[in-house]
Amino acid sequence: MFLKKKSKIRPGDVPEPEFPVLEGMPYEEYLALCHDRLKPRTYLEIGTESGKSLVPARGHCIAIDPEFKISHDVAANKSSLFLFQGPSDDFFASNYMDRNAFKIDFAFLDGMHLFEFLLRDLINTERHVSGTDATVMMHDCLPFSRQIALRTWDTDINLSWTGDVWKLIPIIARYRPDIEMKVLDCPPTALVQLRGLDPNSTVLSDNYDAIVGEFMNETLDSFGVEEFLNLFELSATS
To answer: What is the SS3 assignment for 234?
Structure first.
């Protein structure tokens, strides 16, 4: 799923001065660069929608979306392409990865913009990574205002919406400090790069209910914008 953004800017779409201005490489360009550099054998994408971010992928590609709206040539230059239309939870429950002995070298997680969904996507993706050299990218984890980071999306106030997936940054910092996490300055709302993943780790799954309970009612105001921003340094992409 891309950042939800339509034609007119509403009051909630105006960036707030407390948040950093991202001036790096646009995220789709950076993802394309990653495909060229990493040359993954198996690529997983959650939240494909139109397919634009899927175009540069090569090798064996798996794309998941609850309702595809493909408007790009997503099949070109790929060894194979599997499209799963439905919730990502259902995809992982189908055991497709195990049945085909696929191990993920590169993944882009851009599904439902609620933190518990992204947390489950990360848990399920990590189980199937090829090793510590695998790379996972998460989108929309650095909002530019408090309004777009709320769990509810009021289109009368803001037409951009990241939801509360920003919470994955403190969750990973607290529960999985072993993961190498970088926040990349890709506009409009950053990419979070994860490496050093462990397919045998059960820390996040074992603590899933506790994490959801701990973070469900948090907002950027209650957590603290400054405290959130102090969890990371932006990494330049250009």
So the answer is: strand
What are the pLDDT digits (tens) for 100-117?
999 999 999 999 999 999
Q: What is the CATH number of the domain that holds 164?
A: 3.40.50.150
Model-level pTM greater than 0.85?
A: yes
Q: Is residue 133 part of a domain?
A: yes
N-to-C CA span, the chain: 24
Burial state string for 186-197 with b = 16 or more CB within 10 A and e = fewer than 16: bbbbbbbbbeeb
Q: Who contacts 182 (Cβ-Cβ below 8 Å, separation ≥6)?
A: 192, 193, 232, 235
Taking the CA atoms of residue 9, residue 10, residue 11 and residue 17 in that order, the dihedral angle to the nearest 10 degrees is -30
- Give the H or E element holding residue 119: helix 115-126
